[in-house]
Amino acid sequence: MSRQDPGSTIWFSLSIDGESLGYFNGCEGLASQVEIEQHQEGGNNGFVWQLPTRVTFSTIRLTRPLTPDTAKVAKWISSVQTGIERPTAQIAALRADGSEVARWGLIDVLPVRWTGPTLDPAAPAVATEVLEITHHGFTD
């Protein structure tokens, strides 16, 4: 029996409607929350009903060092200005050897922010980019 090390380095791939936008080394915001409405029933003093109302989803932030795939991200963001339909997306968590750990499908994805690198010769550092996307929920 072979066991994978869950603590190994993880990379994230992002694809929009099947087209890869490359690999990212940081991903945060894969989250959802069910909003609850409390309802008190007359004559029932033992508890308060907790009823689900809607599900909300966090904005997802993907980070990586600058790569040639940055042009693909810029092209996708530019296409939003022409009124495209909101696509589906896939985020896959990958081990260093390329094997998949987990995958998340996203419905109605939209880029909401892109931040490019700060280029300062007085403070050299790795040039990074951050892509923030929003969505309407998870899918298979």
From TrEMBL:
Domain of life of the organism encoding this protein: Bacteria
Cited PANTHER family: CONSERVED HYPOTHETICAL PHAGE TAIL PROTEIN
Annotated protein name in UniProt: Phage tail protein
